[in-house]
Amino acid sequence: MTRREVLIALLCTVCLAVLPGCSDDELMVGGENGPVSHNERALVLSVDETSQTAEVRILERPDDLALTWGTHPAGAEGTADFSKWGSSGLPEAGDDVILKWIGTPAEESSFPILVNSWEPTVSFYESLDDAHEVRLPGSMLRFFSQTAEELVADFAETPELALEARADGDDLVLTFTGKQLADYRADVEQSLADYVSSLRDAEDVSAVEVADDHASVTITASPALLDKPVLVGQALMAVPGMCATLQALDGTADWQVEVAVIDAEKNVEVARVTLPDESVTITSESWAEAVAE
Predict the structure, then answer these.
(1) Which of 130, 136, 232 is nearest to 181 (CA)?
(2) At 89, is the secondary structure helix, strand, or coil?
(3) What's the pLDDT band for 27 if we cut at 50, 70, 90?
(4) Is 2.40.50 the CATH classification of the domain at 3-126?
(5) 251 exposed, middle or buried (CB, 10 Å; 0-12, 13-18, 19+)?
(6) Which of 196, 261, 189 is nearest to 234 (CA)?
(7) Residue ranges, CATH 2.40.50, the chain
(8) I want to staple 176 with a disulfide (CB 3.0 to 4.6 A). Which of 58, 63, 180, 229 is the partner?
(9) Residue 22: its pLDDT value, please?
(10) Is the pLDDT of residue 10 over 50?
(11) Residue 120: what pLDDT?
(12) CA distance 195 to 255
């Protein structure tokens, strides 16, 4: 199971402003070629307070709506000029920001970006009611043998997955746009479906049932399953983990997944455990004892 699986609209603002170099009596408001605010999502790489500039990397925009976005491709790097803001208005290295510059609607982006205004990306989407917070509790991360700090670092390397990832104590707090959240949920649901399908195709597994609310998983199998560590990991780690993640995406604060293992031949319960509060060790001996009772 990958870390991505563990982790596993916009209003275009029209700026009634003067194009750089234009005098007040040249101000154009409206019309097809009137000045508009172009948006660039960028990661701040470094800041030079003396020149009031920053080196930035353009990030993938987190939506698919028709907006007045700049034309810089994701990954492009260059300078952003914040000189009109003064040193007190500079972002910090590592910030994920929306940079706005003024130009005609058809104008292409170029470096340096003459920043007319800027704000943190999360704040930008919050102002548009399109920022959605999801909390993955520390108990879930421990189940995955992960820490919030490790996952924050992973999300920093793939900023297109979420607007922000931050640690809050042992918890991981993710902020998504609506589209990012839908994409993330689709990824988790597909991962769950793939794991279930893989188990159902296995010779030693007769059935896999997942409750609609993702609160329980029932595995019907033969004891030979215990000799297949990959299948054991899918049955007792991956499938419950995807269920727990989907509960978190649904807003469940205290996740629980009940896992039951049923002997396929005798149709008797071999083990039952409620994660994360309980744990159980299943061995060939305990399986045989359960079937013999």
Answers:
(1) 130
(2) helix
(3) very low
(4) yes
(5) exposed
(6) 196
(7) 3-126
(8) 180
(9) 34
(10) no
(11) 95
(12) 20
Nearest to 161 by CA among 14, 42, 62: 62
What pLDDT, on a 0 to 100 scale, did the predictor assign at position 192?
98
Q: Do 131 and 125 contact (CB within 8 A), yes or no?
A: yes
CB atoms within 10 A of CB 91: 22
The token pair that represents 260 in the structure block = 């039951």
Location of structure tokens 């998983």? 217
> Given the structure tokens 């998504």, which residue do they identify?
176
Q: How far is CA 1 from CA 65, 115, 116, 149, in A?
A: 32, 42, 44, 18
Residue 186: is it exposed, middle or buried by C-beta count within 10 angstroms (0-12/13-18/19+)? exposed
Report H helices in the chain. 3-6, 121-126, 138-143, 148-157, 178-200, 229-233, 239-249, 284-292
Residue 107, amino acid:
E
Contacts of 50 (CB under 8 A, 6+ apart): none
| Distance from chain centroid for Cα 154 | 10
Q: Report the predicted TM-score, pTM, of the whole model to 2 decimal places.
A: 0.80
Residues 6+ apart with CB under 8 A from 207: 200, 218, 219, 220, 264
Task: List phi, psi (to 5°) of 89.
Answer: -105, 15
- Per-residue pLDDT, averaged over 66-74, amounts to 85
158: left (phi over 0), alpha (psi -120 to 50) or beta: beta
The answer to whether the CB of 11 falls within 8 A of the CB of 24 is: no
Mean pLDDT (the chain) is 87
Encoding tokens for residue 172? 């991981």
The contacts of residue 210 (CB under 8 Å, 6+ apart) are 192, 196, 216, 217, 239, 243
Helix (H) or strand (E) holding 87: none
Rounded (5°) CA angle 24-26-27: 70
Q: Residue 75 in contact with residue 41, Cβ under 8 Å? A: no
Task: Report residue 139: phi and psi, to 5°.
Answer: -65, -35
Are 231 and 204 spatial neighbours (Cβ–Cβ below 8 Å)? yes
